[in-house]
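seq as requested:
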Amino acid sequence: MSLSLFIIAALVLYSILSVVYVYHWRGQARYPSFSQYLRKSWPVFAPLNCLLYMATKAKARRPVLDATYLQNISVLRDNWQLIREEALALQASGIFEQIKTPGSAGYYDVGFRTFYKRGWSKFYLMWYGTTHNSAQRLCPKTLALLKQVPGVQGAMFSILPPGSELSLHSDPMASSLRYHLGLDTPNSTDCYINVDGTNCSWYNGQDFVFDETYPHHAKNNSQASRLILMCDVERPMNLVGRIFNLLYRLMIKGTLVPNSTEDQRGVFSALFASMAPLRQSTLKLRAERRNLYKALKITLNTSLLAILFALLFAFFSLFESFLSARLWL
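struct tokens:
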């Protein structure tokens, strides 16, 4: 076997084992079926995520963590009422409803768009190095506080209306952890997020951190809305993980989503928005001709995998040829 084929075979085996590990062994909660895992857990990121899991420090290798490991996080807790004032002003202005309206600048969000049909909405404050212009205009006090917490990489306000729920899912990238701070909540166990089988209820002025790549779901069985500050925060990692994570975050920058037309949009976010008409046609095909939709989906996914492995084979073949030429010199 050539070196190129050996490397590709090793990568394929590692990818398969990564998917199996995340689905079958990681944590306590399980998806009801493998097909649901494929739809709800972004398995394409499993090989990269497993590298980050291995690089995560032992104290952070659990579903839910105390937020005190974050430097200066008390700044947010101590000023939660000030933050709530700006969040409630946004809610009163109707901007949460505007963002989840189809066609709006903030609607095309590859990471969160599917939650809109559940009533959930959000307002971005900052995202991996970029501060939203709309947030600077509407939430200057909150941004000033966030800048005092070096571990915060992205932040938004998030609202979950009464009677709503978010189904079981896992977020795609393990480059960070997720921080929640209760602002205007039901202050009840009837409103909670379940992370890997553990319920965490939101209370005003209280916070917690969890690993969003574990299976989790949320329910608001109360009669009041749940409004929180939600942040992507630093994942405690060793040196190798931190170096690897720097490259990973470059990809995340491309998912920048605006709140309004005054904000910037990342390259992946722009691509997702431009594909909206195609997505509508796809959904129509799935509803009207489901068998044809499945056949086309399988064909497309298989073709993409074949192209990917062909490119990898070409790259490693060139690399192998280069090494052979150097050895003959």
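The longest helix spans residues 290-328.
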